UniProtKB/TrEMBL annotation:
Organism the protein comes from: Marilutibacter chinensis
Protein name: MurR/RpiR family transcriptional regulator
Start and end residues of each SIS domain: 124-266
Keyword terms of this UniProt record: DNA-binding, Transcription, Transcription regulation
InterPro entries: Homeodomain-like_sf (IPR009057), HTH_RpiR (IPR000281), RpiR-like (IPR047640), RpiR-like_SIS (IPR035472), SIS_dom (IPR001347), SIS_dom_sf (IPR046348), WH-like_DNA-bd_sf (IPR036388)
Listed PROSITE patterns: HTH_RPIR (PS51071), SIS (PS51464)
Region (Disordered): 76-95
UniProt feature, compositional bias: Basic and acidic residues: 76-86
Pfam families cross-referenced by the UniProt entry: HTH_6 (PF01418), SIS (PF01380)
Domain HTH rpiR-type: 1-77
Length: 282
């Protein structure tokens, strides 16, 4: 794994000092050859030992090994992404922007895939297909993905209960049992209403799956399984787009794995689409 990719993937779980080091490395990767560990520490106003410990926490012997690995990764990326011979150097700003956004989304998807081990994804899929009912809740922007997942699971024949209103979900959760699953969407995992619903669901002995950023948060603490999303950008209007793209890709993967779990699901999906299409195009 690229050291820069590893730093991005681990950033949300780092301490405040470690995040300062990580952000500096990510923003100044091309300049690191001119920085010793002492110079880096002085630039950030921290101790040299903090830089060394940061490097060792990532699996390197020390800062020189980390710096060398980042340099190698940058060299590989530069060699593997040459400009096509027929592409004009002064391409349309729209083309450059579209390519930059696509690369950022791809990076967010790669980071997200790396922090969600295969066994973790399989555990989520198993919990969904084994559940009597799947309760799904998300507020605001998170509700869009919650509704989308609820719709698709319904199309494959899985019984779902989806609400964007926490009061309605709390009322529905009163009927939950030990064979039910709650999937709760919250980017930052701090909404008190969703934490209350999770505690209520836990009291009914149901299983909980949280969908949040890759960070320590109350909602994730309540969950039996967690789907983690990693997406970072210096522009506040771009970062949510990366989060939504990475999240949607993971939900698509989960849906495909659910359909592969049983041929009945795929057959039910096709039949359901036919019925829906008859309503849309009678």
């Amino acid at each position: 794994m690229s050291p820069l990719l590893r730093i991005r993937a681990e950033r949300d779980r780092m301490s405040a000092i470690e995040r300062r080091i990580a952000d500096f490395l990510l923003d100044n990767a091309h300049l690191l050859r001119d920085y010793s560990s002492q110079q880096l520490a002085s630039a950030l106003g921290i101790s040299q030992s903090s830089v060394v410990k940061f490097s060792q926490k990532l699996g390197f012997k020390g800062y020189p090994d980390l710096k060398f690995s980042i340099g190698e990764a940058l060299a590989r990326e530069g060699a593997g992404d040459p400009r096509p011979p027929d592409q004009e150097p002064d391409a349309s700003p729209h083309v450059s922007l579209a390519e930059s956004l696509w690369r950022a989304k791809t990076l967010a998807e790669q980071e997200t895939r790396l922090i969600n081990p295969l066994e973790q994804i399989d555990a989520i899929v198993t919990a969904i297909v084994d559940a009597d009912r799947v309760f799904i809740c998300g507020l605001g922007q998170d509700g869009i993905h919650a509704r989308g997942l609820g719709l698709r699971l319904s199309l494959v024949g899985i019984s779902t209960v989806e609400h964007a209103d926490p009061v309605l979900m709390a009322a529905s959760a009163c009927s939950a049992g030990p064979d039910d699953v709650l999937i709760v969407f919250s980017e930052h995992g701090r909404q008190p209403e969703l934490c209350h619903i999770s505690r209520q669901f836990r009291a009914r002995r149901g299983r909980i799956i949280s969908v949040t950023r890759h960070s320590a948060n109350p909602l994730r603490a309540h969950a039996d399984a967690a789907l983690l999303i990693s997406a970072h950008d210096e522009h506040p209007h771009v970062e949510p787009l990366l989060y939504q793209a990475a999240l949607q890709h993971m939900l698509d993967l989960i849906l495909v794995l659910v359909c592969q779990h049983s041929p009945d699901y795929a057959a039910h999906y096709g039949s359901s689409l036919e019925h829906v299409q008859q309503l849309l195009d009678p």
